[in-house]
Specification:
By secondary structure, this protein is α/β, with parallel strands linked by helices. It is built from eleven helices and eleven strands. The protein folds into two domains: about 160 residues, D-Maltodextrin-Binding Protein, domain 2, CATH 3.40.190; about 100 residues, D-Maltodextrin-Binding Protein, domain 2 (3-Layer(aba) Sandwich), CATH 3.40.190.10. About 45% of the residues lie in helices and about 20% in strands.
């Protein structure tokens, strides 16, 4: 009896001890979450150094650091149609230290080919920052004074009027493909690796126009080039006289919502901490200024609203890719 009683006591003690030990990882995780961030945070910008997205997100990161209480290390990983950030963090620990910039191409590439990530399942949206805007640019010596001149020239000489872009199936390429279909014209698309390379081609007379980011606006302001149209949702305050595609009668959305995401499964308080720091930085005068200089504007959404927009954008991109005949089987 005594043996049996002692055995039961020992077993009970073991159960209590086991329960206490089982709770240790959870307590450690909670302590880690509560102390976030305790080391620098990585933010991948999936665009080349010196471009519009790189410049604006570096200013945002610097502005967010005092509010976050840690440094933010910005890393450029260009290539793969600007999806390298999504690829890199899809399987990273969901601890808040691995972030990337997202945009429409992350959704689009998943619709066109097999990707190592699922844009709707593998990430937690943190905050929308802005929208990347593009437009059609010609050099100052160009005979095209207005959008209609570009279209009429293409109609007169099918396949001879050329334009550059940052690659096949970019938002600007898909937009102009849709417009060419609507206008029943044929344009000669010349894909480049980026705006810098394309501008060399444009100013050198190798292409007739370039569909590039509004960060190229310094060429317009410096009287080296001019916009024929902007592919933004509304006219931009910096160039109020430049029409949008909507103004010209095309229902062709081409702006790309952009913001910050992390791996799926991040603790809510970590997401909240990141969101709050980036939201304060979003309205920092230095960040607002560089957005305006880049032809962008603040377009804030919290994580939940940004997630909803991403789902809506996915459906929109699917239709655009389908119209272009690029939709992968099973998508």
């Amino acid at each position: 009896m005594l043996y049996s009683k002692n055995r039961r006591s020992l077993l009970k003690m073991g159960l209590y001890a086991g329960g206490a030990l089982a709770g240790i990882p959870a307590l450690a995780q909670k302590k880690q979450d509560d102390s976030f961030p305790s080391r620098p945070v990585s933010l991948i910008v999936p665009f080349p150094p010196g471009g519009t997205a790189d410049n604006t997100y570096r200013v945002l990161a610097r502005a967010a650091e005092p509010h976050l209480g840690q440094s933010i290390v910005v890393e450029n990983r260009a290539g793969a149609s600007a999806t390298m950030g999504a690829v890199a963090i899809a399987n990273a620990p969901p601890d808040g230290y691995h972030l990337t910039v997202t945009h429409s191409a992350v959704l689009r590439m998943q619709l066109m080919q097999r990707t190592s990530y699922d844009a709707l399942r593998d990430f937690d949206p943190i905050i929308q920052i802005s929208a990347l805007n593009v437009g059609l640019l010609v050099r100052k010596e160009s005979p095209f004074q207005a959008w209609k001149d570009f279209i009429e020239a293409a109609r007169r000489a099918p396949g001879e009027v050329s334009y550059g872009s940052n690659g096949v199936a970019t938002s600007q390429n898909l937009a102009l493909t849709q417009i060419a279909e609507q206008e029943k014209i044929t344009l000669n698309h010349i894909p480049y690796k980026g705006d810098a390379e394309a501008i060399t081609g444009l100013l050198g007379g190798f292409i007739d126009a370039h569909a590039g980011g509004t960060g190229l606006g310094s060429l317009v302001d410096g009287n080296k080039a001019r916009w024929l149209a902007l592919f933004s949702d509304v006219r931009l305050a910096r160039w109020p006289d430049v029409p949008t595609l909507y103004d010209l009668g095309y229902n062709v959305p081409a702006s790309s919502p952009t913001g910050i995401i992390g791996p799926a499964g991040m603790p809510k308080n970590v997401i909240s901490r990141l969101h709050d720091a980036f939201k304060k930085a979003l309205y920092d005068p230095a960040h607002v200024k560089i957005l305006e200089e880049s032809g962008q504007a603040v377009q804030y959404r919290d994580g939940a609203a940004f997630g909803k927009l991403i789902k809506e954008q996915y459906a929109l991109e699917r239709e655009r890719v389908r119209r272009a005949g690029l939709l992968a089987a099973g998508k």
